[in-house]
Amino acid sequence: MKGTLPIGRNWNRSRLTMHLCRLILFEDDPAIAETARIGLNDLGYEVLAVYASADDTIDSLNELKPDLVLMDIDLEGSMDGVEAGIEIHRRFGVPIVFTTGHDDEPTISKAVETGAFGYVCKPYSVQDLESAIEMALYRVARDRERDEILEKSVGGGIKILMEILSVVDPESFVRGQKLGVLMRDLAGALGISPTWELEVGALVSHIGHVMIPGSIIVKHRLRTPLNSVENALLTRSPEFGHELLMHVPRLEPIARMVLYQNKEFDGAGFPDDAVSGLDIPVGSRMLRVLGDYVDLETAGTLKVQALQIMNGAGGRYDPEILREAIRCVIDVPPKGARPVTFQELKVGDCLVAPVETVDGVVMVAAGQTITPVCLRRLGNLETLSGIKEPLYVTEEPLPDPPPVPKSGTEVSEPV
C-alpha cells in the first residue's frame, strides 16, 4: 500500500536502518527462545545472547553492545520483563521490544508506558518479530537523525550568539569562558552529569548584554555612576538573555538558568518573584557563586579573600554549592603561596589558605599571621584531630579585604 513502511523477509532496508542488527533475547521458555533465535538468525539478524532471566545478566550488555533487546514481559527471576527493560534502557539507552502472552490492555499499557519501542503478542511468528524489530530500528534511526539535525542547529545558534558577544562585549565573552571551566569542575564535585547545559549556560550567561547600549556597559566597567534607567536596563540583562535563548531549539533549560543567575538563595535579587532556595535552577545557583567569584578575582581580589567575602554574604548563596566551590578552588595551591607541613609552620607566616582539620572543618581563616599563641593552639588541634596538609603560607601579610557586600547587592559586576 502506498505510504506504508514495507516490512518483510525480502524488504530492502531504508538508509535509516541499513546495518546488521545485533540482538539480545530475554525469554524463559526454552522452546520459544530457540525457535526465535534460529528464525532471527535466518533473517540476517545476529542474536548475541539468549537469557532466561535478567538476574546477573544485564551487566553483559556493556560488553555485548546490542542494537535492540527483545524482552519477555513475564520473565522469571527477581525482576520481571518490564522492570528489566526499564533498567536496560536507563543504563544503556538500548531500545526494548516487549513480547507478551497477555493481550489485555493493562499489560500492554504497562509496557508502552516504559518507553518501549514496540511489543509483540504471543503466539507470534518470526515475521511478527521482524516487523516489530524493523519498526523499532526505524524509530531509533529517525530519532537519531532528528537529534543530529537539532544538535547542528543548537551548536550553530550558540556559536552565532558567542560571536556576537565577543564583538559587542569582549570582557563578558572572556568571563564566560572562565565560568565554563569552573562550571565543569564544580559540576564534577557536585556529581552532576552531563554538564553540557551547565557549561553552555556559563558561556552565554552575559548574552543579554548584546541588548544593552554599549555606553552603559562601558560606564559600568569604569564604575561610573549609572542613572536609574541605565541601572534598570543592566539589572534586566538576564531577562534579555533569556528572551534570546528561548529562540534557539533545546535551550529552554539554559534560558531559565540564565534568567535566574542573579537570584539569591534567600529569594532576593532579580527576577523579583517568589522563587527561592532549591526552586532556583541548580545551574543558576552555581552561576551565582562562580560569577561572583570570577568578578571579584577579575577586580584584583586575592582568591582566598574572595572566598572569605562570599562566606560572609549571608543568604546570597546555596550553602552546599558554596562549600563545594570553595573546596574545589582552595584545594588548588594558591598563586604565590609556599606549601609547608605543620612542623614547618613558624611564627610570622601568613596563611594564604585556611587551616582545616582532616574532616574539612575550617579552624583558622586565611589571612591570619601565625602568632605564638596561634601556633600552640594549632599544635593542640594537630594532636586531637589532625590538620590537613600542606598548609599554604606567605611571609608577606595579606592586604585588608574589601567590605562584605550586603545581601541583595551586587558583588563587583552583576551576572
Question: How does this structure look, described?
Answer:
The protein is α/β, with parallel strands linked by helices and 415 residues long. The protein has helices at 30-42, 61-64, 81-92, 105-113, 126-168, 170-190, 196-203, 214-221, 228-235, 237-245, 252-259, 282-298, 303-311, 319-330, 372-384, and strands at 22-26, 46-51, 68-72, 96-100, 118-121, 338-340, 350-351, 355-356, 362-364, 391-394. Strands 2-1-3-4-5 form a five-stranded parallel beta sheet, sandwiched between helices. A three-stranded antiparallel beta sheet has the order 6-10-7, with no helix packed on it. Strands 8-9 form a two-stranded antiparallel ribbon. α3 (81-92) links the parallel β3 (68-72) and β4 (96-100). α5 crosses α6 (170-190), α6 crosses α12 and α13 packs antiparallel against α14 (319-330). The two termini are 59 Å apart. 32% of the residues are buried. Mean pLDDT is 81; it is low at 1-18 and 398-415.
